[in-house]
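If you are new to this repository, start here. Below is one unmodified record pulled from the training split, so you can see the exact layout before writing a loader.
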Amino acid sequence: MAFPTETVYGLGADAFNADAVRRVYAAKGRPADNPSIVHIARASDLGLLTPRVAPDVVRLADAFWPGPLTMIVEKRAEVPDVTTGGLPSVGVRLPDSEIARALIRAAGTPVAAPSANPSGRPSPTTAEHVLADFGVGGPGKPGPYGGKGKPGQSGVDAILAGPDCRIGIESTVVDMTVTPPQVLRPGFVTAYEIACVLGDAENAKPDDDGAPKSPGMKYRHYAPEAEMVVIEGPRAKVESEIARLKSLNEGIGRRVGVLLFEESDYVTAAHEFYARLRALDASGADLILAGALAAADGAAGGLGFAVMNRMMRAAGHNIVQV
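And here is the target side for that same chain:
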């Protein structure tokens, strides 16, 4: 079942049911070594997934749960390897969406839920995005991202429709199995905020050569169908280069879309990033020219930094400096 959270829509299965989780992976086309995040309905459910809860985990849970923070902790033996990508750890979060928590309570079990989209494509932030990607029940209509919404293929069992996702990008992921804890994926909860609670958290860059402890680390993620280029530099030069490249490419018959936010409006950029990528794909764009956000909060690992993380990965790190 697909369901909304405050970050993006998830495609959920009983975290302890290996066959159910495999079906989610198959539906998404998700690599087996890409771990899922397990969602819980109350902080006390953390004990179902890990044999020990360290004091720092409690501190972060008190500060940021319910909310868009995932903590990687040692897993219990009962958690299937398919849920964790074969790792001895598990990523857990308590969403602040009441719809999500009500669903988990009704299920009576923690729910493993990667984003409800074909693997590698832009994450869904509305029920309509999930429907376009997968369809529901029996054979669905073709979706723009090549998901199970193709004729003759089954869709998801159901979509629990709710409001548009409030935040719009995936949760921050912090690895609590290392000292000091490491932020593996930036998000709405910043490295600076984590440091304020723990005093020693680091915004470490992920090591793509090792086993990915967090979704979004190893594989190309968030990518539209269209080719995408990020233009980075002073805003006036960025806008001028976008106009030049747009004219040049349209002159040879390519359809060009532009993705440009106010350079410091990080909240809007986070909320609308995936929706705009999807809209540009649906418009038939061959090329997307995206303006980079201002780097003012980059050192602190802030929300702008988190959006730029998604933007760079969506473009396959195809960047033009001006």
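Two things worth knowing about this chain: Residues 227-321 form a domain with the Rossmann fold fold (CATH 3.40.50.11030). The chain has two domains: 2-198, 227-321.
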